[in-house]
Design a protein that fits this description.
alpha/beta, Pyruvate Kinase, Chain: A, domain 1, 5-stranded mixed sheet, 6 helices, 5 strands, elongated, ATP_synth_F1_ATPase_gsu
Length: 288
């Protein structure tokens, strides 16, 4: 049985840990509100931009930009996985790595060449462990303060490789914040532009271009690319803070329960020590 001194030391240590996790929960709660607001502001713009390009793509012909039509043969595919730089956020990164592993194995089974781009230190470490030969590049320190320039850096790098023929397709995987308690990995095609399926009976009007179709697409396609990556980074940031808040809340409750158990054990040990001393005193008095 541990000594009273050891129990007091452990109780003090757990109390300090509970204070840390409680503080981290409060910080994450403040950050997740800002991150969630940023995501909700970005979603309508990204969705409307994708809808405009979808209407344009319906009537596109062979003369349309390659970024819109894509290549006939898809041999080399890149997967951009957006995670977090820091841990203590529950199973957020492990779920992303698990989903990425399933996606990679499915694509490898079709004979395609896979390249992985990691966004976040935790994803980088996981990919180095699981697929070191597939990891092409890493981007870190982007989740703390998400900026549009970060998205432009990633998107421009992927676009250059697509234009040079090094990549035929690029897919983007990130965590979507469904609620404060639920974050789900999602993946969608980033390059070339993927046209969303239209509902049955939905009428799509033919767009009119001013000054010309080429000029409009030349501006909208890279903008959509940047916006999709930016939205994914915002979603990942919000999911990270929500997962951290949930994890720290659970850790705080667990620490409280542990303190209660240790306190009971400490009180029992202390009572046993007092009882033992009383017995020794009484026995000594009776001996006299």
């Amino acid at each position: 049985m541990p000594s009273l001194k050891a129990l007091r030391s452990r109780i003090k240590s757990v109390k300090n840990t509970r204070q840390i996790t409680k503080t981290m929960k409060m910080v994450a709660a403040a950050k997740v509100r800002r991150a969630r607001t940023a995501v909700e502001n970005a979603r309508p713009y990204a969705a409307h931009l994708a809808n405009i390009l979808g209407n344009i793509a319906v009537g596109a012909d062979n003369s349309a930009p390659l970024l819109l039509t894509g290549r006939e043969q898809v041999k080399t595919v890149a997967l951009v996985v957006c995670g977090s730089d820091r841990g203590l956020c529950g199973g957020l990164n492990s779920n992303l790595l698990k989903a990425a592993t399933q996606w990679i194995e499915t694509r490898k089974a079709t004979g395609q060449t896979i390249k992985v781009v990691a966004v976040g230190r935790k994803i980088e470490a996981g990919m180095k462990s699981a697929y070191p030969e597939l990891l092409q590049k890493s981007f870190t320190d982007m989740g703390r303060n998400v900026e549009f320039a970060h998205a432009q850096t990633i998107a421009q790098d992927m676009l250059e490789q697509f234009n040079t023929g090094d990549l035929d397709e690029v897919h983007l995987m990130s965590s979507q914040m469904l609620s404060m308690l639920t974050q789900q990995p999602i993946v969608h095609q980033l390059i070339p532009f993927a046209v969303a399926a239209k509902a049955e009976g939905e009428i799509v009007s033919a767009p009119e271009f001013e000054p010309s179709e080429d000029v409009v697409l030349e501006h909208l396609l890279p903008l959509n690319l940047n916006m999709q990556v930016f939205t994914a980074l915002l979603e990942s940031s919000a999911s990270e803070q929500a997962a951290r808040m949930t994890a720290m809340d659970a850790a705080t409750r667990n620490a409280g329960e542990m303190i209660k158990k240790l306190s009971v054990q400490y009180n029992r040990s202390r009572q046993a020590a007092i009882t033992k001393e009383l017995i020794e005193i009484i026995s000594g008095a009776e001996a006299l």
